[in-house]
Write a structure and sequence with these properties.
Layout: E1 3-10, E2 13-21, H1 26-37, E3 44-48, E4 53-54, E5 74-79, E6 115-116, H2 125-135, H3 140-156, H4 163-166, H5 170-177, H6 186-196, E7 199-204, E8 210-213, E9 221-227, E10 232-239, E11 242-244, E12 246-248, H7 252-267, E13 278-281, E14 287-289, H8 291-301, E15 306-308
Parallel strand pairs: 1-5, 7-9
Antiparallel strand pairs: 1-2, 3-4, 3-5, 6-10, 7-8, 9-10, 9-12, 10-11, 13-14, 13-15
């Protein structure tokens, strides 16, 4: 069964949870969190998503895969007052839990089409995708510039991007994200959505869900990228005058078109299983399977330049 690899941030820093799978439950997650933080399960306040939202921890048997928790996500833990039933106090913005299998509604037919623009798989695909959306450019220079934008945004918004969320001191994070070998994710998407004052919607090929970044910014527009488990590509609508990459927030037809692209990609199995995808070390040329093996190789050798190959 596929592994779920999560980043867990807490007051003591950050840790990586590697032993969970799509069959793991909320109880399994809380046990793993307790082991690394020493925070008892009935005192844990767990948050996920960006911005982080409180998870209702009452249904211990809920599957992580049904909670929308995917490999690569971050879970944030704080110590709260113990509860009598082992759950955190309810909150108006909690993430609802369900132990029922998630259904996948068939995408509705639409008259418009949206197209995937394939960008280089060079560890900066998120930045290249955002560069294409807002600047029409997928080159290394735009990726470098956008990494700087992320760093500046994080420094200027300490309340929105606290150290505990970043997993390191802000100044350390700003230096770290400039490394072209570092992959982007939710934090970087949130910072870029804020910079461009546009919601960024990430269509997940494997789960067929849309993660929306910048929803708290009162934006009037949105843009789309598609995510296959490891790689991001931008989506655009062809037009007689060029390529449209930014759309009115209420444009439901373009959302349906984006979901159709994802559904077709999933049907073709065009997504990456993080537990089993193949990588090649760009430094020594060794091939390996799965993110866990790649991380261990990086730890053992100091090599950080990886490329996916099939």
């Amino acid at each position: 069964m596929p592994n779920i690899i999560l980043k867990c941030t807490h007051s003591g820093g950050s840790s990586v949870l590697r032993d969970l799978t799509t069959e793991s439950t909320l109880s399994d997650l809380q046990t793993a969190v307790q082991n690394i933080t020493q925070i008892e399960m009935n005192s844990q306040k767990l948050k996920s998503g960006f911005p982080p939202k409180l998870i209702d921890t009452e249904e211990k048997s809920a599957l992580l895969s049904n909670l929308g928790i995917r490999s690569g996500d971050a879970v944030h833990v704080e110590k709260g007052a113990p509860s009598s039933n082992g759950s955190s106090a309810p909150s108006s913005n909690h993430v609802p839990l369900t132990n029922q299998p998630a259904s996948e509604p068939a995408p509705r037919a639409v008259s418009r089409s949206i197209v995937r623009k394939v960008v280089p798989a060079d560890n900066s695909c998120l930045f290249a995708s955002i560069g294409f959306v807002f600047q029409g450019d997928t080159g290394k220079s735009i990726s470098t510039a956008l990494r700087c934008v992320v760093g500046d945004t994080v420094l200027s918004c300490p309340d929105q991007f606290p150290d505990v969320l970043l997993g390191k001191k802000r100044e350390e994070y700003v230096t770290w994200i400039q490394n072209p070998q570092i992959w982007g994710g939710g934090i970087e998407l949130a910072a870029l959505a804020q910079h461009f004052a546009t919601e960024i919607h990430v269509v997940d090929t494997q789960s067929l869900r849309i993660d929306k970044f910048g929803q708290d910014l009162n934006c009037s527009d949105k843009a789309y990228v598609i995510y296959d488990g490891i790689h991001y590509d931008p989506l655009y609508e062809p037009s007689p005058t060029g390529q449209v990459t930014v759309f009115p927030l209420q444009d439901s037809d373009i959302e349906a078109a984006a979901m159709l692209v994802a559904a077709n990609a999933k049907k073709a199995h065009n997504y990456t299983d993080l537990a089993n995808f193949t990588l090649k070390c760009g430094t020594c040329g060794i091939g390996m399977a799965g993110e866990k093996v790649a991380r261990q190789h990086a730890k053992d050798t100091g090599h950080t330049n990886f490329e996916e190959f099939k």
